[in-house]
């Protein structure tokens, strides 16, 4: 009786041990098939794509099992993104127990993926070393944003008016409305008839939902369009945004030579006048001279220096002339804000109202003359007084 009991107990123990062994083997197989290799993270460059942008998807893999695995060829599923370097890819290879590795795929949105969110799948199979292929490969869904928004370029400050040829200061605001930064931003200035103090500006990085301001100085010969071009990178992709901004000019920035008066003495002439600057900006190195047939005498040129915008400077010149001219040119040279030289001129009539030096005239006494109307008045007054008596 006791022998049978011992045999039954021993049999039960053997069965229990066998069942535990089988259960452990099945559990180990399930772990290998469903989760020995996992995706621990991913990275996108750029973070947000433009339609047609090329970028890099980097996926991090980890072997969480206790045995090595051979990781196969990765693929990209879903049809929303192209896998550009699939032909150049090779199997990831051996990944030891607890080991980690990264896989990079060159990707691009398909032609039909133009705006919004895309959800392609990263997938890769693997085999356990010494085992069989895993029927359930690693698969991870990767959300990718596609945004076609361009940079915003606006004028936030400008002069009330800009005179023809005169330099005007504008402040531009360049905004990045996208959800990720742009890099390598450069801004160039152009346009028909536009002259700028600086043709290009390097700004660099503009973070997401942020902006940067730049000041530009431009001059133009007439009404035109200021062309502002911003070139930048989204990841490794080059993009550009261009805007045309109307620029209107008023009047002329050329100096005005006015109030010219000439007088003659001792065979010399003295000319006085004024130089008016109608522009909004200062002009510098202003010099006034009398041109041929004038012959320099004494203060033959006037250095006025700087004349502020909407202001004038007065001058006086002394010269003689050759021959019998009736006019003499008065010439003004000056520099603008770009340090470019300009020249304007006007003519002054030579007025000879003084006596010539050869006529020696001595002062003579002049008899006191009583005007006729005064005599008539006195007579009338006498008549009135006599009548009253």
CATH superfamily of the largest domain: Immunoglobulins
Shape: rod-shaped
* Proper CATH architecture of the largest domain: Sandwich
Instruction: Quote the distance from N terminus to C terminus.
Output: 191 Å
Poorly predicted parts: 1-11, 13-34, 353-389
Give me the Rg, rounded.
47 Å
Q: How many strands, what sense, and barrel or not for the largest sheet?
A: 4 strands, antiparallel
Number of domains: 3
- Tally of helical segments: 2
CATH class descriptor name of the largest domain: Mainly Beta
Structural class: mainly beta
Which strand order spans the largest sheet, edge to edge or round the barrel?
1-3-8-6
Classify the fold: give the CATH topology of the largest domain: Immunoglobulin-like
Beta content: over 45%
Mean pLDDT: 81
Helix fraction?
10-25%
Number of DSSP E strands: 31
Protein name: S-layer protein
Keywords: Membrane, Transmembrane, Transmembrane helix
Transmembrane segments: 368-385
